[in-house]
Amino acid sequence: MKLIVAVAKNWGIGYEGDLLFNLPQDMEFFKETTKNKVVVMGRRTLMSLPGGKPLKNRTNIVLTSNKKFKADGCIVCNSFKELFEELKKYSNDEVFIIGGGKIYNDLYSYCTEAYITKVDAITNADTYLHNFDEDVNWELSFASELHDYNGMKFTFNTYKNSNVCYPEI
Ligand SMILES: NC(=O)c1ccc[n+]([C@@H]2O[C@H](COP(=O)([O-])OP(=O)(O)OC[C@H]3O[C@@H](n4cnc5c(N)ncnc54)[C@H](OP(=O)(O)O)[C@@H]3O)[C@@H](O)[C@H]2O)c1
């Protein structure tokens, strides 16, 4: 599986349940990359989506420890064990971890690739991503040219994992 995320310079990814940045080009990249694919998210990230609704044209999988939790249009998993069972139905390449902090940081070792939009700014954050630049298992394999949106500079990056973990189920 793969991971897709937008990070600030200090690897901040969220504040008070919301994203840190609103970059249309990054949203477009996210939409195109995950279209018709399987997206895996934590319950808090689902709640942060417009109307708390799943993303259209994608298979949405939500993690929660609440066994009574139901969400229209979502497959609910109550543990990583359940998640990995569910993911056997899909090819590894079509599964994307889309957040938030808890889910990224618990699952990144199982990912083969990470699409990381790096924004050249630091804003107030309360949720952070593992620093891929300081992890010897992860290598930067692609970095785009610098983009600019209203003075906000950012790049699209791909990291590859040389030490992928495989779940024991
Ligand atoms: N920058 C980006 O690209 C990006 C992308 C997505 C999200 N975000 C940001 O990230 C923040 C949210 O992240 P977060 O860490 O607070 O929450 P989260 O990772 O979205 O969701 C955490 C929730 O997932 C469930 N969960 C986690 N591990 C589980 C497990 N092993 N088994 C069952 N359920 C499990 C729990 O739900 P229950 O409490 O229901 O048990 C937990 O409270 C927001 O600010 C959001 O905007 C940023």
Q: Can you walk through the features of this model?
A:
The protein has 169 residues and is α/β, with parallel strands linked by helices. It has a single domain, classed as Dihydrofolate Reductase, subunit A. The protein has 4 helices and 12 strands. It has helices spanning 24-34, 43-48, 80-87, 101-107, and strands spanning 2-7, 12-15, 18-19, 38-42, 59-63, 74-77, 95-97, 113-119, 127-128, 138-143, 147-149, 152-161. The longest helix is centred in the N-terminal third of the chain and has 11 residues, at 24-34. The model has no long low-confidence stretch (mean pLDDT 97). It binds NADP nicotinamide-adenine-dinucleotide phosphate. NADP nicotinamide-adenine-dinucleotide phosphate binds next to strand 1, strand 2, strand 3, strand 4 and helix 2.
The number of distinct β-strands equals 12
CATH topology: Dihydrofolate Reductase, subunit A
CATH class: Alpha Beta
Encode the helix/strand succession as letters.
EEEHEHEEHEHEEEEE
Overall 3D form: globular
CATH H level: which superfamily? Dihydrofolate Reductase, subunit A
Level-2 CATH architecture: 3-Layer(aba) Sandwich
Nearest-integer average pLDDT: 97
**Mind summarizing the main beta sheet?**
9 strands, mixed
State the end-to-end CA separation: 16 Å
> What Rg do the Cα atoms give?
15 Å
Give the class from helix and strand content and strand pairing: alpha/beta
- The structural domain count equals 1
Q: Spans with pLDDT under 50 lasting ≥5 residues?
A: none
Helix content class? 10-25%
Q: Which kinds of small molecule does this entry bind, naming each only once? A: NADP nicotinamide-adenine-dinucleotide phosphate
Share of residues in strands: 25-35%
Number of helices: 4
